[in-house]
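Protein in question passed on here:
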Amino acid sequence: MKDAAKFFGITLGNAKRSFEDGKSLYNSTPAKSPMTGINKDICFDFYKNEKTEADIAILLAYLALKSVIGSKPYVHITNEFLIARMAGYASVKSMPEALPEPLAGYTTRRKLDKIKFELRSNWNVNIYGYRVRGFYVSIDNQFSLEKLIYEVEKQRKTNIEKKLRQQQNDAIMKAKTKLKNELANV
């Protein structure tokens, strides 16, 4: 506990009591709860400095995305799932009808678009959602926007169909050429 306090630059009043409180909090968290990490500087910036409701919503969205992405390079999610994670729920199904009041105002498309804009502008988040239900998201230092768009477009049904048609046409041409060569040798 003393090493942790030194690392975080905080003073503990009672190290043993802090440990017990932390242990109790950890043990009271349901087993499959969404988890994420937070940068120490960001944590203390939000702790020490006054932040607007919008700033807090953006932080919650960032942490929600980090919890969904985990170790994957990118994920495909919906606005509803983003809101559920921002509220700390594991899924949309586990989310109650009435969200906690500060978040309830951020469920409109306009507000979510503002949050996504801030995430793209200031939090190194890549978001791509051209002609898809929901959107794809990655964290820039793990997976660039260019890579994200490439992977999404590569998986698009029309591109897969084109690739399969091309493979079939190539196979037909090879078979016809082989057959033509065999008949010419007869």
